[in-house]
Design a protein that fits this description.
- The chain has 139 residues and is α+β, with helices and mostly antiparallel strands.
- The protein has one domain: Roll (Pnp Oxidase, Chain A).
- Helix content is 26%, strand content 40%.
- It has helices at 4-12, 53-61, 95-107, 110-114, and strands spanning 17-23, 29-33, 38-41, 44-49, 63-70, 79-91, 118-129.
- Strands 2-1-5-6-7-4-3 form a 7-stranded antiparallel β-sheet.
Length: 139
């Protein structure tokens, strides 16, 4: 396990690369880079998302994993974490979606914000370091 404050710092690091993994109901995987992901608190991950394969997979399964990687010139000093998620809600309209679009406009640009169709909220079920040699799942 990794401390929730450390997870939040790694996910919210402006220099990080974020990757969201999902599967459809048949188990076919999808992996996508997400710059919009952030943690407003230690229990929640928020993502702005368009009409994508990831969104469709979440509608089907409600599960995802997010990996945050903070690169370093020395690969041995690269930091990051893996966060295991359960879908809480996918909001397609309203003030929450508007605030996620504003967040995306700030960190990316207005064109990227216009592509956002969902404000997605996940409950964080567990987190692990980027590199973890533990032989079995916790929980």
């Amino acid at each position: 396990m990794i401390d929730s404050k450390a997870v939040m710092a790694l996910v919210n690091d402006p220099g990080r690369v974020g990757v969201l993994a999902t599967t459809d109901r048949k188990g076919y995987p999808n992996v996508a880079v997400f710059g919009s992901a952030y943690m407003p608190d230690e229990l929640t991950l928020v993502v702005g998302m368009g009409e994508t394969r990831s969104a469709q997979n979440l509608l089907e399964t409600g599960r995802a994993a997010f990996m945050s990687v903070v690169p370093n010139e020395n690969p041995m000093k690269t930091q990051g974490c893996r966060v295991y998620l359960k879908l809480r809600s996918m909001e397609k309209e309203g003030p929450t979606l508007d605030s996620v679009k504003e967040h995306v406009a700030e960190i990316a640009n207005e064109k990227a914000a216009q592509m956002i169709k969902y404000a997605i909220f996940f409950d964080i079920e567990s987190a692990r370091p980027l590199i973890d040699w533990s032989p079995k799942a916790e929980g």
